Each structure stands twice: as C-alpha cells, then as structure tokens.
Amino acid sequence: MSVNPRNILLFGLMGMALLLVAVLQSPTLALTILNMSLISAIMALGVNMQWGYAGLFNVGIMGFTAVGGLAVVLVAQPPVPEAWRAGGFGTLFGLLIGVGTVMAAVALWRRMAPGRGRALALVAVLVAGFALNRYFFVPAVDAIEAVDPATTGYLGGLGLPVVLAWPVGAVFAAAAAWLVGKVSLGLRSDYLAIATLGISEIIIAVMKNESWLARGVKNVSGLPRPVPQPVDMQAAPWVQSLADGLGWSLAQTASIVVMLGYAGLFTLVLGGLIWLAEKALNSPWGRMMRAIRDNETAARAMGKDVTRRHLTIFVLGSAVCGLGGAMMVTLDGQLNPGTYEPLRFTFLVWVMVIVGGSGNNWGAVLGGFVVWFLWVQVEPAGRFVMELVTAGMAEGDLKTHLLNSAAHMRLLTMGVAMLLVLRFSPRGLIPER
Amino acid sequence: QEVKFGVILGFTGPIESLTPHMADSAELAFKEISDSGLFLDGQTITPVRADSTCVDSSAATAAAERLITSDGIVGIMGPDCSGVTMAVLQNVAMANGVPLISPSATSPGFTTTESNGLFFRTAPSDARQGAVMADVLMERGITSVAVTYTNNDYGKGLSDAFAESYAAAGGSITINAPHEDGKGDYSAEVGALASAGGDLLVVFGYSDQGGAGIMINAIESGAFDTFAMGDGMYSDALLETIGSDLNGTIGTVPWSEGEGTEAFAAFATENGVNAESSYTRESYDAAALLALAAQAAGEATSAGIAANILNVANAPGEPIMPGELAKGLEILAAGGEIDYVGATNVELIGPGEAAGTYREYIVEDGAFTTVSFR
Amino acid sequence: MIRVENLHKHFGGFHAVDGATLDIAPGSITGLIGPNGAGKTTLFNVIAGVLKPTSGRVLMEGEDISGLPPHALFHRGLLRTFQIAHEFHSMTVRENLMMVPPRQAGEDLWNAWFHRGRVAEEDRQIHARADEVLEFLTIDHIADEKAGQISGGQKKLLELGRTMMTDARIVFLDEVGAGVNRTLLNTIADAILRLNRERGYTFVVIEHDMDFIGRICGPVICMAEGKVLAQGTLEDIKANEQVIEAYLGTGLKNQTNKEVGHV
Amino acid sequence: MSEPVLIGEGMTGGYGTGADILHDCTIAVDAGEIAVIVGPNGAGKSTAMKAVFGMLTLRAGSVRLNGQDISGLSPQARVGRGMGFVPQTNNIFPSMSVAENLEMGAFIRRDDIRQTMEQIYTLFPILRDKRHQAAGELSGGQRQQVAVGRALMTKPSVLMLDEPTAGVSPIVMDELFDRIIEVARTGIPILMVEQNARQALAIADKGYVLVQGANRFTDTGAALLANPEVRNSFLGG
Amino acid sequence: MDILNALITLANFVLFPAITYGSQLALGALGVTLIYGILRFSNFAHGDTMAFGTMVTILITWALQGAGVSFGVLPTALLALPVGIAATVVYLLVTDRVVYRFYRRQKVKPVVLVMVSLGVMFITNGVVRLIIGPGDQRFDDGARFIFSVSQFRAYTGMEEGLALRTTQGLTVITALIVMAALFWFLNRTRTGKSMRAYSDNEDLALLSGINPDRVVQVTWILAATLAAVAGVLYGLDKGFRPFTYFQLLLPIFAAAIVGGLGSPMGAIAGGYVIAFAEMGITYAWKRVLTHLLPDSLAPEGLVQLMSVDYKFAVSFALLVVVLIFRPTGLFRGRSV
Ligand SMILES: Nc1ncnc2c1ncn2[C@@H]1O[C@H](COP(=O)(O)OP(=O)(O)OP(=O)(O)O)[C@@H](O)[C@H]1O
Ligand SMILES: Nc1ncnc2c1ncn2[C@@H]1O[C@H](COP(=O)(O)OP(=O)(O)OP(=O)(O)O)[C@@H](O)[C@H]1O
Ligand SMILES: [Mg+2]
Ligand SMILES: [Mg+2]
Question: Which residue in the set E204, E209, E212 is minimally distant from D93, CB to CB?
C-alpha cells in the first residue's frame, strides 16, 4: 500500500468502529468480530488474488473453504479405531480403485486415437472401475457408518495438533483447485463462474452425504483448539489475578485472553499473507498477471503462458481460501457441511473484495473487515431502525407486524449499507492504483 | 427491574418460516410470567431476539456474544439448528456460563456433548423416536416402506435410528432418500421413491418445508397415498393444505398423555400465537423453564438458572400446565416444588437430553386422532 | 526463415486462407498486401499460433511450428502486432512495454519474494529500455498514462513498441501504419530498416500504404481471396494487371502518389 | 460572411475530470464543403470530433449547427438533428450481422431504407457478400467499410468521419473518397480526420492542422499541401 | 412387457414434471439472460424480483378472492397477474433509476454491477419478507387437475396412473406464448433490434440515435414481466415462499449459462436441460423396467444411476461437462 492518508484514515475508522463496539457493547463482542474479520480478510485476499490479479471469476469459494475445513477434522480429530477396523481398508482400497479408474481413463483418452474404439474402451474402463469401486467401497462404508452412528460413524482423523490443519487445509484446497482448474480454466468469465459454483456445490454434496468421511450432515463438533477454552482459562491463576487487577469479571477476562490468543494467531497468518501478496503484486510477476487479466490474447502473443499462470494463481488463491476455511472451522470448533451456502461463503466474500477494492490487497483486507462488521452489526442496526420507524405509530396490527418482521431488516440494512459504500466508491474503498 | 432472556433463532435463512412462530411462543411464556407480577418479586422479563441464521455459525456466535456480553441476558431460549446451537454453546455460552435451552436441536450427538451443565433441550433426541416409529409400523403390519428425510442432522439422525430399529424388527426399507429443504421442486425425489415402492412413505421432514413438498407431490402423482410422519411434520397447516388426502396417515409426535398440549393450543390461540407450527410447543416450554428456574433459584443469574432447570422440569412437585405459569411461580416463591409438564410433557433426563412420551396418531376425517401414547 | 505450405484456414464454409504457399527469406523485409478480406490477418494469426490451420503447415527454419501456442512461438523469436490494437488497458504505457521481455526473473514468485535485489536490478534495466523505446516513438510524455486512455494512433505505436522490447528474430507487423501520422511513419520505417540491418530482424509487413511499402520492403507478396496472387518487387506488383484490378485501382491514391512523389 | 453550417468554436475541455486536451480549438465546415483535420497522434483530433458530437463536456466554447447553439444537446439528440458520425475505434456492432449494422445506421429513419442499403452495397460490394455475417468476424478493412456504411445509412445532413480510410485498401479508399466528394456535392458538410493526409487534403476544401489540442494551421487543403512546413512536420514529407 | 405402462410411469414421474419445471426455469433464465445480454451483468436479484412479483399477485389474488371474484376453473391469480407485472415493472424501473443508473453512467466493471445487484437482492429480500412474511403461501384455486391419477386410471383402465395438474398445463402454455412473443420482439421489432445494438456497443448505439435510457427501460420492463410470470407460475405450481425463490436463482443461472448467456434460445434450452438432468439422472428405473422386462428379469435393485442425494451435484456435473465441450454454452452465448 502506498502509505496514503486516505487509506490510513479508512483503516483507522475501521479500528474506531471496533473500539466503539468494545466500549458501547462489549469488548468480547468486538474481539469476536475482529477474529472473524481477520479470517474474512484472508478469504478476501485469496479471492482478490484470483480476481484482482488475474481476472478469474471464481464463484466456488465455498467449496474451497469447506475443503479447508474438512482438513481440520481429518488432521486434528482422534481416529476411530473401531471404524478403521470395520471398513478402513475397504474404503481406502475403494478410493484407490476410483482414482486408478480415472487415471486409466484419462491415459486411455490421451493414448488412443479418437474414434469409436476409444469411446468403447473408455466406457468399459469406467464401468468396470465403477463396479469394482462399489464392490469394495459400499460395504466398507456401511460398516463404518454403523459404528456408533450417533457420535462417531466415521473414520476420524489423525489426532495431530490443530494448527497443523491450517497448512493442510490450504493444501487440500490447492489440490481441489488444481483439479477444478485443469477442468474449467479454459472457460471465460461467467462460464467459469458457474462451473466453479457447480463444482463447489458438488464438493458440499459429497461432504454432506459421505458420512464415513466427516459424519456428513451429522456434523463433527468439539474439535481440538489451538488455544485453551475460556472455561479452562478461568481456572488459570494468572488469569484470575489479571481479572482482579483489571477489575473485570473472571469470565470476561478469560474470554478476552482466549480471543486475543486467536487474534494473535490469525494476525500472524494474515500478516504473512499480506507480505507475500504485496511483494508478489508489486513485482514483475504482478505486472504480468495484470497484463494477462487485461488482455489474454496479447499476453499470449507476448510470450506469457496464460494457461499455466492461470492455474498457478487459481491454486494459490484457492489455497488461501482453504487456509481461511480451516481457520474458521478451528475458531468455530466444528465442521458443519450444512452451513456452507453460496450466499455466505461465496458471495459475501465477493462483496468484501469488491467493496474493499479489487486488485488491491489492502482493499481486500479492509473489505473483509468492513463487510463482516456490517454483516454482524446490521442485525441490531436493523432492529433499531425498525423501532425508530414504528416509534411514532399507534399501537396496532401494522406496528406489531413490523416489529415482528424486524429480523428481515437485517438483510435489508445489509443491502442498503452495501449500496451506500459502493455508491461513494464504485471502485472500492481502496481502489487499485 | 427487568430480566433479559435471549431468543436466538434463525429469523433469516432456511427455516425463517418456522422461527417467527417459535419466537412468538417463547415470548408468550415470558409475557405470561411478566404479567403475573409474581416473578422474582415483581421483576419483568424482556426477551431479546437475535438471528442465528440457522446456518452461519460465525454470525450466530457473534449474535449470542452480543446478547450475553452487551445486552446482559441471563439465559437463552434457542438456538435452533444443531450446527449453530453447538457453536453458540461451545464458543459463547460455556465461556460465559449462560444456560441455553434449545427447542429444536434434536440431534443425538447432543446427548453426549460436554456442556458444564449448561445445555438443555425440550425436544427429545431422535434416537428414541426412530424406535417408536418402527414399533408403530410393525404393529400395523407394515413391513416395507420407502423413507425420505430432510438432509440435516435431524433428518439423518432420525432416519438412521428408524432404519436400525425397523430392520431389527424385520421390516425392509426400499429406499432411504434425503431431500433438501428450501427447494421448491421435489419431483425427482418422488420419482425415485415411487419407483422403489413400499407399503407407505415415511417422511422425516418439516411440515412447511421439503417434507410437505414431497407429500403433496407424491399424492398428486399417485406415487403414495399413505404416509407415516415424524414429529417435524405434525401441524394443522399440513391438514389444511393437503386436505382429505391426508386421511390414513399415521405419525408420532412428542406429546404428553394429558391435557398439556391441548392446554397450550388453547392458550396460544387465545393469545394470537400460532400453536400448530413446528416446535412452537417446545419453544414455549423452553422459555417457561428458563423463567421458572430463575424463580426457583430466587435470583435471575445464569448460574442459578442452570442449576435449577432440572429441578423445575422434573418430578417431584406440582404438575404445571401451559397457561399455569403463575401457579408455578407462586409455588416456587413459597419454596415448594414443581414438575413442569408444559406443552410437551417435559421430562429432562439430564443436561443435553429430554425424555418424553410420543403420541401415535392417525389422521381421520381431516383431524389428528390419538391412537396411543408410547 | 518462414515457409508456409499450402495453408488453408476455413471459417465454417468460408475459406479465408485458401492454399497459400509462400516463403519469407531470412533477413528480408517482406511486404504483404492485398484487398480487404484477402486473408492477410488470418494468415498472420495462423502463423502466430492464434488460430489452428485447417490444413497445411508452417515451417520456421525447416521445423514444423504449426499448432504451437503463441507463447511458445514468442520464445522462438516470433513476434507480432495486432491490426486492432490489443493494449493492456489498465496498465500504464510504460508497463505495457515492461511486461514484454521474456524470462524475467521477477515473473517467478519465488524470486519476487526472496531474491528481490536481483529482480529490482533487472527491472531497472527493463525500465530504461522501455523509456528508450517510448522516446523513440515520441510518446514518452504519456509513459504513465493508462494505455486504455490514449489515442488510437498512440495505441498502434505502443503495439509496435512492444516488438522493440526484446530480441526478436522475425516480426509480423499488421498494419502498423493505419492511423499513424505519416511523418512519424517515416521515422518508424527508418527504425524498421535499422532493426533489420543492425539486429538482423526479419520483418513481414501488412500495409495498405504503398509509400511505406515502397520505402522499406524488398519482396512484396500480394494476396487475394486467400491465395497468393502475385509476388515480386513492388514495381513488378504495381505493374501487375490483376493486382491493379483487385487492389490498387487507378484512382486518386496513385495519382496523388505521383503528384507528391517520393521523398 | 455568414456562419458555417457546423462550427465548434473555441472548444476547451477533456475527458471526465482529467486535464484539458482541447485548448481553444475551432473547427468549422460549411455546406458542400469537405473539411479535413490532420495532426500528430494524440493531438486531440478525435477528441475534437467527439466534442463537436457532444461526447465530452466542454469547459469553454460552443458548438453551433445552422446557427443554433447545440452545445447542451446529448449525442442522440444531435443524431436527431441529422448529424452522422463514424468514430475511430469501436465503430461497429460486432455481434450483429452486417445488414443489421446498416439497419441500425438508419435507426432514426422512418422511410424505406432499402434503396440506401443498395447504394451502400454498390459502394462496398464486399459487404453484400457478407451481409449475413457477424460484423465482428470481418477483416479490419471490411469493418471500416461497415462503419462508414452505417453512417451513410443515416442520410445525414452533416457527416463526421474519424479516419474512415484507416486499414482499407487503396482501391476502396479511392472509391470512398469519390463517394465522399459526391456526398459533399449534394450540399452536405463533411468533417473528416485523416492520416492519409495528402490524399485527404487533395480533396479538401478546408484543412485544419491540430497540435496539442490547438489549431496550428488553417487553410485550404491545397494551400496546406503546398506548405513545406506542414508537409514536413505533419504529412510525412 | 408392457410398454404403455412403462411410458406412462415415465411420463408421470419424469416427463411431465421435467417439462413443467423446465418451462419455469426457462422463463426465469430468459429474464437473467436478457439482462445479461443487454445490460451486461448477472442479476442476482432476479430470484427475489420473481418473489416480489408473485407477492403482489398474491395480495391482489386475496383481495379478489375476498371480493368473491373467481376465474372459473383457472386460478384467480391469473386475473391478478397483470397488476403483479405492473408492480414489478415499477419496482424495477425505480431500482434502476435509484441504483443501477448511477453505476451505468460511471461505466463500472460488470462485476461491480453484480455486487450491486446483490445489494438490491438483499433489499428486495427484506421488502418481500416485511410485507408478506417468510412463510408458505398457497394461492392456487380453481381446478387442481386437468385429470388426476384416479380419473386417468378409471378412464383408461391402466395399471399405472398419470396426472396433469392445471398449473402444469398453464405453465407450459404460458411459457410457450411468452417465449414466442419475446422472440418476435427481439428479432423483428425495431426496439428489439436496438436493444441488441445497445448491448453490442453502447457508444455506437448512441451515435445511431438509439435512446439508451429507453433501451434500458424496455429491458427492465421485459425482465419484470418475465420475472413476475415465472414467479407466479412457479408459485401456483409449487407454493410460494420467499426463501425458495431465492434458492431458485442457482438453477436459473445454471440454465441461462448452459444455454449460453445472452441467448434467449439458450435460456430455454438450458431450462429444460437442467430440469431433465435433475429429474432424469437420479431417476430409479426399477418401476419402468419392471413393466418392460419379463417377470423373470425384473430388476432387484433400484436401477438408479445416482442416488438422489446427488441430485444437485449431478446436474452441476452435467453443466460442467457441457461447458467443457461448449465453453460458451449450447447456443454460443457471449461473455463480458
Ligand atoms: N472468425 C471469423 N469467422 C468468419 N469469417 C472470418 C473470421 N475471421 C475472418 N473472417 C473472414 O476471413 C476473411 C479474411 O479476413 P482477414 O482478416 O484475414 O483479412 P485481411 O486480409 O487481413 O483484410 P484487411 O486488409 O481488411 O485487414 C474476411 O473475409 C473475413 O470476413
Ligand atoms: N478516453 C480517454 N480518456 C482520457 N484521455 C484520453 C482518452 N482518449 C484519449 N485521451 C487522451 O487525449 C489525447 C488526445 O487523444 P485523441 O484520441 O483525440 O488523439 P488523436 O489526435 O485522435 O490521435 P490519433 O491520430 O492517434 O487518433 C491523447 O493524449 C490521449 O492520451
Ligand atoms: Mg487484416
Ligand atoms: Mg484519433
């Protein structure tokens, strides 16, 4: 960021807003918002890499964050030995067959000359692979899911420290993105968008319905934490003396300490990412990406391997989203495939990027903060507005109706706030230079 | 002086059509208590609503955080969907020691969740209902059914439990297909269900969501004409929309043998609250329990409430029906014991688990007719 | 240098290039003329890998390059400009040039992060080179303007400037002159001649301005309807009846050429 | 002397809030006249044309048509007054067919357009062959022909052309100039920017040399052609 | 062997529902594709616009019903529809004036308009729920069936039944009429052509004397009409709930894109492709095969390509496959 007074002012205002929340509402609320804002900023950064740098319209963010979240379960949850005994082998073998089939099919497609023979061979390989896969996979999965379905019914994870799951989440998302990119990066603008959207829906469908993997819609909760739980913190003597010293309640002190712990971790990650992103964007690499974004044909003619660069940035951006997804699941302490909805996990992140200013890392970060702040605070704001509106009204059906509908002011307020921000800075709060 | 309770439900999002009624019911209980003037020496209750969104754990967490630390609520009626419930419980409620009673988180997973004695629910776990439903069907000699469930932890848990019991009892399930709520078109699901066939279609869903969509579609296309329904499907609205085609449908719903439910229906209707929507009864009970527990503790503190919920919910004591909360307050104020029965025959087994009886009903002449209680 | 063998390019049923066969001698400046729609640009696009030929092949120094992607051809030293300017509109004019040099260390993320000294040093050189080119093209005053906001002629100059940022072996210029001021075009002609002489670039030039062709081109090829109609020196071509009928005409343009004469 | 039919007088202005590009620039053309603007790249020729057509806001000066001040009119209102314009770039509807492009040229006309269309096809025979093809698929020179054709379809009472001959082959250029002379003979003023400046000035009644947004030389076409300074600096010798 | 029964089963559970649903999607997708084609952005508020139009229609329907007006065997809502359309038109024109016009004049990138439409979506979302609430509304009256399963069985004496709902019939007929009218308008009328010209090259349209404000207005009017019609038909058929309308956005976009954005023909084809994919790929063929095959060969299992769990996944997978082979959709859409 060019150290520009306007930008500093904007970040300052954002900080002020959080501070106001801390004073007027509660410090823990401010920290809750801050922590999710940090994660949102990371996701926005990831999307900004794809859109802002390279012009890739990825609307599958939801899928990548979900895959990142899945990593937390697979890395940090304790394994379920009974499930492994019941069907671990069959599942893995079945999966191997699946992967093998696809690889064989791809190899076949590449090697054989086009024609009917190829098509027939392909179908034969696919059908045989599918049948084999079902043969091993289905009974194994049934066995796993039968192991105490109410609490486990899945294979569990590796029982490793949860922070390890963050890079793994990024790698998972990167791997998924690589596959998705191979398939769909040839598409342009909105076609790429719907393809990624579709693939992300497929990812969610798999996560919802394959309960041997991470319990599907039954959710995995109580995931390990990188920071002690507030309840446990309350027992720590230093927290107690801190609470005494500050004159705060013990619960509040413990919560604040814990949240600050998360905030520290998240800030560290975000800081590192911004550093990398800024250095990349302001280098010849960034220049090349912008050239590709502006005009692919010309970039190709100027010797840039657009396809490869697209794939790289797509994988990198998705990895960042996956990282954010893993961090979010860690913060929530649960993986809940049912919560992954495009509106919340894809479009909201997009709003962050655009409101913040696409193509500009600091813009995306600010967008993450501003939009998340709005998303959380429009609810009381909406209610407040509604109370204001109805204050002068006579008691009656209309007033009751309106007051009862106050919840819907939440999205309405969100819409109005978004339009206002975009109105005054159509290119985002911190536009690209 | 006023005591604040949180009402955290998904006012926007997939179950936004259910939550207003749930909130109304809960607030009905709070109002009843406030109006009685007997609550903690004349204190009043102010319910504070917040949006759990049903799906966005982070937003729900922030909302709960706001209610607890900024608005100063002492107990939460809600949240609703299991995911956000778990998030609020583990990330906010436990940190602040605030008890919550969920009216609708029926996932068996909660039974074993460690909550420091802060999590309660008025809807029984699905595990038991699955068994009850299997019994009902087997007793009627229905041995082959198609099953559809709403694709969330409620539906999946219930259908798992049912499948297990039903198979153990010798029944066979031709197809066990999930459906997604919030969509309008269920022809594909019905097509598959119809093709699989079966004596009847078991629907574990919500009465004004996909469950209803599936049933209407199944009837109109002639795929099935008899149904068995889980608790989420029980509602007068369904009777109204489907009409006479619903006759012969059997179902189970948490219900007390006694007048609790009717009492609630009458009381709610009188106060202009829709009593028939899903989970309105559970919501009323959850709210009532919170307030009664505060009364029993003699103070409106989170810790006091948490410690007394089991106390007021279970025997021994004077049974308390919906609309009789004032009586309960009086007894508690006098140092007596109550056994809150409420609209759903509340019986809490411990934190995290509700017992309760189920009512087996059959639809006859466009009305739910009780067959037996189990 | 480049050999095009019986090349066909069809759009649906339309034969834009219809069996063209031609040779570009190394070190030459070859003019490519022909009526509108003759298939000149399409031929360029096929050679430069933007379009796949329907049939036929393109050889570069004896090697079959048909079907190679544009960026691979670029790395073999084959550059081209676009008839309809393809600027990078949100980048500054200078950046438009600076992105051209191939194999920049800083285009590798690793270097961009961890070898910043080296990258900065290299970038300084590229920056200097870009400034030279801009000055040469008389557009140094707009170096920091967004390329999307410069005049039509300036865009054409930028298009040409890009080919001057790297050591090319063969450069295809598609109507660099259209819309360029004639005085400046003379300067450009000199530059082409100099690049050709001093750096040994081979050029293929599409142009409708016969003065320009006459000034720089040795061999001239005239295409029509996707085929090579005539080939030879400009004088031969100008005398060719078919060419006159299909392309040059006898009107005002040639008259004024005579009137004004060559400089 | 009576006022010319179309005059942009003392025009000063630029794009959006950017710096001024035109500085007190005056351009005029009278009935039956051909006025040609020449000048280096980026001099502001196209900007001057756009200013006359109302596509950017002027900070000073005015545009008058038949003595009426039209500075405040929107571009499409000027079309309604009979002004036709071929911009330098983006001057076709790429995904519409050639015929549809021409039809769009005649959008404000209510009479039968078939005859004009025939005239265009005669002028540019290639367009007849390509009439069902999307204009975006045409070659550079063909597009240019479509662009000019579109403007002629309007049957304008003032015609403004921004480099109409860029990229067209000599034979077509000749025809085009012939046709432009013909059009001018019917009494229509024609304002044209050209880089094929010698040819254009040869047919021009009036020539403007624009440098950095200001008038540098203004004279008859022949006089400018004869002026050695103009020839050396702006016409390529 | 019983081909007739097999066919009837298929018609009842796959063909009829898919054609109806396809028509509804197609109408929605036409609106999306029109806005994309002419105003050049993906309008995420379209689902909620449909909800808005339907809401107004429902309110009017109730008023009519209250006044004792009915439309015989046809749903009363059809009488209310014109008002619904008019209200939607006004709503969209006001939105355009207050919101979109500013950004259009600023010539912002399409993606900003997409985000703006998200904002409008949130607002419409709130407005609809504030007025009519988030709950289910059924507003169909008149005859429910053209013929029902039992009538069909009684009449034909077949084993399998077939039902045709009034709303199904209505949907298909209305959809056909609307589509034909739209085609005629876009390809044959001057205004239609000027709209395509505007979408192609806005500046040049200006220079041809096309009034851009009018083009934009007409576009919104058409979009509003399509949205209201699609919304009401869908609501009559499946009930109205704001949230489902919002969720419809996804299949509608899928349809528009499979068909090729900006191409009306594509939107229609896309609607049916998506509908048939959703119905067909997860269909269990057991019942059909049981009729077709001799008893000895009757299938044991469900004969299902994919379980219904993957209904959406499958239709999206299909979409991706289509795009891989036709990168801008079946009918060569455009891309910004
Ligand atoms: N994508 C396409 N689809 C269909 N026809 C095309 C396409 N591209 C070019 N053509 C046709 O191919 C022919 C050759 O076009 P090309 O651009 O090669 O001409 P050119 O010789 O460069 O002409 P000019 O001098 O006008 O630039 C033209 O008639 C054009 O209409
Ligand atoms: N859309 C725009 N926004 C901002 N500046 C512009 C824009 N278009 C052109 N300019 C600037 O205005 C100046 C004059 O441009 P103009 O297009 O009028 O030149 P011109 O004389 O037509 O040149 P050419 O012969 O190259 O077409 C140029 O320096 C250019 O950078
Ligand atoms: Mg060309
Ligand atoms: Mg110009």
Answer: E204
